[in-house]
Write a structure and sequence with these properties.
The chain is an alpha/beta fold. It has 9 helices and 8 strands. The structure holds 2'-deoxycytidine-5'-monophosphate.
Length: 234
């Protein structure tokens, strides 16, 4: 899809979006990147890819040292394909495999190791060194790109997030219930925001957007509005 918003002042800029699971970060960031003609960086997919690899090779997800070595060697690549952001690990496509409940259960533990985060953050910074990127995750506004020109914290009620997760999973053929999704979100929120290494938090200069009652298109438009105001002021 051709970029719809060609603002010369956007050249080289970084847009960072953080928020909890189910807040709509991934879809919003992907669409925003498409519209701006920017690179889309899904940092969560990188932690998921490492988790998938560890599980696949029976490596202990609690062993930070082993995971650090693997993280340094894994080749994680993204390829935009229409509405899908395809993910490859060492040349093998794992787009669907990294979203299984098994990976989702273990990814919080893997991503909590400071050794793992150090490697991933270095790769993410390198990918964003020329700007022109929309990055999303838990620490993109605080740790990966504290210099980002536009920072957004997406949030939504537990009810709305569980409903979205339920629909996503049901669509991809996974049997689940809204209550199961709620319990999983509560567990992951707690893990992601109380861990010692780069917990999920809202930074002071981020705009908070509650997406509970917004469509994805509305979310994207709100952020584009923010970009116009912000970039105009830079
Ligand atoms: O956004 P997601 O659900 O795909 O993220 C998967 C996990 O990775 C999530 O439990 C938290 C972690 N994560 C992280 O610690 N830091 C990031 N920048 C992105 C994700």
């Amino acid at each position: 899809m051709a970029a719809r918003y060609k603002l010369p002042s956007l050249e080289g800029k970084i847009i960072a979006i953080d928020g909890p699971s189910g807040s709509g970060k991934s879809t919003t960031a992907r669409l925003l990147a498409q519209k701006l003609g920017f690179i889309y960086l899904d940092t969560g997919a990188m932690y998921r890819a490492l988790t998938w690899f560890a599980l696949r090779h029976d490596l202990p997800t609690g062993d930070a040292k082993i995971l650090e070595v693997i993280a340094n060697r894994l080749k994680i690549e993204f390829k935009a394909d229409g509405d899908v952001n395809r993910v490859y690990v060492n040349g093998v496509e794992v787009t669907e495999e990294i979203r299984t409940p098994e990976v989702t259960r273990k990814v919080s533990e893997v991503s909590a190791h400071p050794e793992v985060r150090k490697v991933m953050v270095a790769i993410q910074k390198e990918l964003g060194k020329n700007g022109h990127i929309v990055a999303e995750g838990r620490d993109t506004t605080s740790v990966v790109f504290p210099e980002a020109h536009v920072k957004v914290y997406l949030d939504a009620s537990l009810e709305a997030r569980a409903q979205r997760r339920f629909l996503d999973m049901t669509r991809s053929g996974v049997k689940t219930t809204i209550d199961e999704q709620k319990a999983d979100l509560i567990r992951r929120d707690k893990y992601d925001s109380t861990r010692k290494a780069s917990p999920l938090k809202k930074v002071r200069d981020a705009l908070t957007l509650d997406t509970s009652h917004l469509t994805i298109e509305e979310q994207v438009e709100r952020i584009i509005k923010l970009i116009r105001t912000k970039i105009g002021r830079l």
